[in-house]
Amino acid sequence: MTQLSDTELLQAARDAATRAYAPYSSFPVGAALVSADGTLYTGCNVENAAYGEAICAERNAVTTMIAAGSPPRLSAVAVVGLKAAPCWPCGACRQVLREFHCERVIVEDPDGNPVSLAFDDLLPNSFGPDALEGK
Ligand code: THU
């Protein structure tokens, strides 16, 4: 079980961003999330010469969480872009985070201070697994 402050989560995301493979965009991103059982998972963006095959930091963190056998639920994710603050999750990542019941997103403001937003404010009226119940 990991008890991390928002500042510590952002630091973990920043560390992950330093491992990004982003030779095409030169826009390294890191994500750090805490799963429902309190484990920390991180990810960075991984790009490709076929540009469209780039994978975002957030989705890499989520797939690492699932591959590790974690419960499919996360309480919070922090996102850091080394070249831009704040670095909000893209639309595709919001949808993937939605799947796993993300409750909160933490980014940095331009001064490096934590900003926390409820997930519903980031992706209101979202489509999720509940929509398929009883189909
Ligand atoms: N990127 C992320 O890793 N996460 C986001 O939410 C936004 C964009 C990456 C993808 C690409 O490698 C680079 O940032 C520029 O778009």
Automatic annotation (TrEMBL):
Gene that encodes it: cdd
Tell me the GO BP annotations in alphabetical order.
nucleobase-containing small molecule metabolic process; pyrimidine-containing compound metabolic process
Q: Which reaction does it catalyse?
A: 2'-deoxycytidine + H2O + H(+) = 2'-deoxyuridine + NH4(+); cytidine + H2O + H(+) = uridine + NH4(+)
Q: What cofactor does this protein call for?
A: Zn(2+)
Residue positions annotated to bind substrate are 45-51
Residue sites binding Zn(2+) per the record: 56, 90, 93
Task: Give the EC number(s) listed in the UniProt record.
Answer: 3.5.4.5
This one is known as Cytidine deaminase
Looking at the record's lineage, which domain of life comes first?
Answer: Bacteria
Cross-referenced CDD domains, in alphabetical order?
Answer: cytidine_deaminase (cd01283)
Q: Which family does it belong to?
A: Belongs to the cytidine and deoxycytidylate deaminase family.
- PROSITE patterns, alphabetically? CYT_DCMP_DEAMINASES_1, CYT_DCMP_DEAMINASES_2
